[in-house]
Amino acid sequence: MFTSVMFLIAVSATAEEYGDFTYTDNGATITITGYDYNGSGGAVTIPGMINGKPVTSIGTSAFSRRKKLTDITIPDSVTSIGDTAFAFCTGLTSVNLPNSLTSIGDNAFYYCGLTSVKIPDSVTSIGVYSFYHCTELTSVTIGNSVTNIGADAFRYCTDLTSVTIPKSVTSIGDSTFYYCTKLTVITVDASNSSYSSLDGVLFNKSQTTLIQYPPGKAGSYTIPASVTSIEKHAFYYCTKLTDIAIPASTNIREPAFTCCAGLTAITVDAANSSCSSLDGVLFNKSQTTLIQCPSGKAGSYNIPASVTNIGYYAFASCTGLTSVTIPKSVTSIGGKAFSHCISLTGITVDAANSSYSSLDGVLFNKSQTTLIQCPSGKTGSYTIPASVTSIGESAFESCSSLTGVTIGNSVTSIGIVAFRDCKGLTSITIPASVTKIELEAFDGCDKLIGVYFRGNAPSFGFHLFNNARQVTVYYLPGTTGWKPTFADCPTKLWPPDVK
């Protein structure tokens, strides 16, 4: 019987119009849906009553992408704002959130132009990505009843300078303040039972876990002796951090300081049992694993002979690094180890290394059948050696100064994001030997116009030409598997005189 009633209610809740608004009648209450919203923009006041019934909710995507909206007044009857309700309202600078409101949905104000937000004391939950990329947001007041702040809730709020966490908050999602580049202080109410702050830095209550270092906080920093662990993104994009000291108590096993452009040195207390440092670089205790080279380290770097493993993201975003020498001892190199090293022009491997090799400053496996990393600072055109059968994940990522790449006839696969952000490429030819191209292989190649295939249509991953939709795909007569579009890009027959 309960199921039948719910079904009847769902059927009867059809969209109706009220002025510029569309809504659904839920029986006793009204939900603004806005799917047919055709208002002229500017300042908009949402009605509190429609046909004698209170408006209690703003539905999913109700005002999404209404870029002319500048100001929204929400009535005191509304208790919930649905997912993506105001997403991409880039002209929206002001919204009043009523004291009746209890929840703000996921992505609710995603990519809006809001300059300040006051979340009332009635709200208990702030959804994931709710204020994501509100780059004009300078001030936010979080109400005293909020218990949950969703992951990435204020991510990319680049004008936000400070935030106070009330005593009611018991859960803060991952990366909540990621890339808030002007955020210099996070304050937690002393009565909060789950979180605390010290010198503007966010911790758990006992200060054993460092959760978030404010990305805009400048200078050097010494991690408190109470800290045993650091959250994954705690220091990401802390570009004004210059050096950091890690105490004996803190265990770090993965890169925690990626994209800290100003960071030139990481120092570890000699009594630390899990990690160590040498010349400002972070290692495990025995210095067999290179965990992280600080992003601000410049010039050339010789990896110590003790190292057998170069960790995932170990040198990522070391924008001033120009060359790296890998010793014969290294047997393992993690993914994206040299990603976004935009000044890196050469990677050299000791000839006695049994796992890796280099040729013309490019990193390969020992047999040179897999191209692992072309340094991001390499310029001009590049011809992949005939021995190569696979192009690895991120192999040419951010090689923005490369103007051409010639792929040999032995290559059968092109890895995930292999050519991402190769912004100098205007065309590329894929040999007939290639049967598989992984997802987002040409993402961000915004000057890429023509991709020329010599063989049959290969299998391909999602978003192959993401952010490169100007591409036309050409194929030869007599080849198979081609349709009017390939990976969402138009296809054309490639007669010999085209290229």
Question: Would you write up a description of this structure?
Answer:
- There is one protein chain.
- This protein is an all-beta fold and 499 residues long.
- Among the domains are: 1-183, Ribonuclease Inhibitor (Leucine-rich repeat, LRR (right-handed beta-alpha superhelix), Alpha-Beta Horseshoe); 379-499, Ribonuclease Inhibitor (Leucine-rich repeat, LRR (right-handed beta-alpha superhelix)).
- Strands 1, 2, 3, 5, 6, 8, 10, 12, 14 and 16 form a 10-stranded mixed sheet that branches. It has a 7-stranded mixed sheet with strand order 33-34-35-37-39-41-43, with no helix packed on it.
- It is flat.
Give structural attributes:
Leucine-rich repeat, LRR (right-handed beta-alpha superhelix), ten-stranded mixed beta sheet, 1 helix, 46 strands
Query: Span from first to last CA?
Result: 69 Å
How large a portion of the residues is in β-strands, by DSSP E? 25-35%
The count of DSSP E runs of length 2 or more, i.e. the number of strands, is: 46
Alpha-carbon Rg, integer: 27 Å
Q: What's the main sheet like?
A: 10 strands, mixed
| Annotated CATH architecture of the domain at 1-183 | Alpha-Beta Horseshoe
Structural class estimated from helices and strands: mainly beta
State mean pLDDT (0 to 100 scale): 95
Q: What is the percent of helical residues?
A: under 10%
User: Count of helical segments?
Assistant: 1
* CATH class designation of the domain at 1-183: Alpha Beta
- Unreliable segments (pLDDT under 50, ≥5 consecutive)? 1-12
CATH superfamily of the domain at 1-183: Ribonuclease Inhibitor
- The outline comes out as flat
Might you state the CATH topology name of the domain at 1-183?
Leucine-rich repeat, LRR (right-handed beta-alpha superhelix)
